[in-house]
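Class, study these two lines:
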Amino acid sequence: GADLGAGPARGSLDLVVVNSMLQYLPRAELVRWLAIWQERLRPGGRLVLGDVIPAQVATEGQLDLVLEPINGRDMPGFFLNDFGLAAAEVAAAARPNVKLQFDIYHRQIIHGDVTKALEAMLPITGHIQIASVPSRNEPDGEELSYPFLFGKLDQLGYDGYVGCEYRPRGK
């Protein structure tokens, strides 16, 4: 199996986000990696999983499960392609560690109305991601004003991280 080797020191990270990987690991390997990632967190740090995993693997405490709606243009047929449905699933889970991953890029493509959705869904949001719309390149222009949206996140009291998931223009 893989090893972090000379990676981040134990207890040095505030946040570890694992996305689109866990579905490929056998259960024993998944459990081993969760232990490795948790060792890298500082006290009070967070491990966020952006994949669907068996509920028995989840724990209260440092492990949050986030549901991410994906637009049908980038991933045709993806089953969770509606923010309202994702919010309903978070509510139905009725667990404090099950949250929404609010990807602003996907929200704009699926529904638009990003600002009002942030206002309504921030209480159930565990992580936010960004990219330019429609290109999914660096978040520095096009349809959305990220300086405005960052100001709105500050105004709403969001104190989490904002991840960048985009396709670099030069590649």
Residues 140 and 147 are 9 Å apart (CA to CA). The two ends are 30 Å apart (CA to CA). Residues 27-40 form the longest helix (14 residues). The first strand starts at residue 13 and ends at 18.
